Amino acid sequence: MAKAKRPLSPHLQVYRWGAHMAVSIMHRATGSALAFGAVLLTWWMVALATGHEYFNTVQGFAGSVVGRIILFGITFALMQHLASGVRHLFMDAGKLYELKANSASAKFTFYFSITATLVIWAAAYKVMGAF
Amino acid sequence: MTGMKTPLAKVRGLGSGKTGTETWVSHRVQAIANIPLVIFFVVSFVGNAGKGHAEWVAWIKQPIVSVLLVLFIANFTLHMRSGLQEVVEDYVRDHGTKFFATIAIKFACALIAGLSIFSVLRIAFGG
Questions:
Q1: What b/e sequence results for B10-33 when a residue is b if at least 16 CB atoms lie within 10 Å of its CB, and e otherwise?
Q2: Which end of chain B is more exposed for a tag (fewer CB within 10 A), N or C?
Q3: A with B: how many residue pairs have Cβ under 8 Å apart?
Q4: Helix (H) or strand (E) holding A14
């Protein structure tokens, strides 16, 4: 029997893409990325507890170009997940469902995460005496 | 499965949400606890950026830092466990895959928590 082509309720593809949709999927994507970050943090913690020689190996990787790109990505994921997570808490409390507030808060999570990531990295480079 | 059933009829009888509400509320409580813990974590790591092994060890040995790190690890692994499980439950259709993925997530989160917390304690109590 051919698959019945009954009408279904409208799904993702019929809606115009917006910040509210981006922030929703980004919350899950960044959350999953942070699980990978947790693995790296564990590796780093274990290295720190193992001794300075192994720790230097791990720090060497973290400080490499690839390592820094990964850490930069994780920083962004953490800040974005933090911001969209707080937004979710407001929504759990029944707030931010009005279209304007919903869209504005969705956009704000991205402004926050991008700014916070840059500030964190600038501060880290400042601490390391880069400028 | 035949297409004669409505979506509602398909899910009827599959069981209740069981401890769903509790998991949902716990996930939010962990999220709230994560806010100050993440701020502590990020500020600390920026402040210690570029430091060597001895300095990091000395930093972790401070009781307040050890305690906050253990709490942070415990909290984010629990949050991560229910978060990843939710993703799997939403996107994995096959029951067998879903079952094993769920178990794997629980094991992985426990392993991450065990290894990281042990490392903090070993440094905190080490010579």
A1: eeeeeeeeeeeeeeeeebeebbeb
A2: C
A3: 79
A4: none
Instruction: Write out chain A residues lying below 8 Å of B3, CB-based.
Output: 3-4, 6
Residue A66 · residue A96 · CB < 8 Å? no
Burial of B62 per CB tally in 10 Å (0-12, 13-18, 19+): exposed
Q: Does B122 touch chain A (CB under 8 A)?
A: yes
Is A68 exposed, middle or buried (CB count within 10 Å of its CB: 0-12, 13-18, 19+)? middle
Classified as helix, coil or strand, A96 is: coil
Alpha-carbon distance A128 to nearest alpha carbon in chain B (angstroms)? 6
Provide the phi-psi class of A9: left if phi over 0, else alpha when psi is between -120 and 50, else beta: beta
Spatial contact of B59 and B65, defined as CB atoms under 8 Å apart: yes
Residues B37-66 pLDDT 10s: 999 999 999 999 999 999 999 999 999 999
ipTM exceeds 0.85, yes or no: yes
DSSP B10-28: HHTTS---TTHHHHHHHHH
Token pair listed for B99: 């079952």
How confident is the model over A23-82, as pLDDT tens digits? 999 999 999 999 999 999 999 999 999 999 999 999 999 999 999 999 999 999 999 999
- Cβ of A48 within 8 Å of Cβ of B60? The answer is yes
- At B56, list the tokens: 């990091």
What is this structure's pTM?
0.89
